[in-house]
Design goal:
The protein has 4 helices and no strands. With 97 residues, the chain is mainly alpha-helical.
């Protein structure tokens, strides 16, 4: 219950702050930009509880999956080629690195 009360309190405080900011500014061309920015912040505030739940269950492999075997083999070959070039460069065999 405390979580819900805190959530509602944050939204209400945000709306009060937005109202105060809009009342301090005279009607101008910037009002629409302030309202747009405030709307984006309000959206972030509204989805914050779900983001906190997702942080606890976050796993890269859940979102991206495993690399295919072919991709892993290709990455390994590229790594070996780079290591060979570096070794040749260190030994002075290859002048154009």
């Amino acid at each position: 219950m405390e979580f819900f009360v805190g959530y509602v309190k944050n939204v209400v405080m945000f709306m009060l702050a937005l109202t105060m900011i809009l009342n301090f500014y005279p009607k101008s061309a910037f009002e629409k930009y302030i309202r747009m920015f405030a709307g984006l912040l309000l959206l972030l505030l509204m989805i914050q509880p779900w983001m906190k739940l997702e942080e606890k269950n976050f796993s890269v492999t859940d979102y991206l999956g495993e690399l295919p075997v072919e991709a892993e083999e290709e990455l390994q070959k590229e790594r070996e080629q780079l290591e060979n070039k570096i070794m040749e460069r260190l030994e002075g065999k290859n002048e154009d690195f």
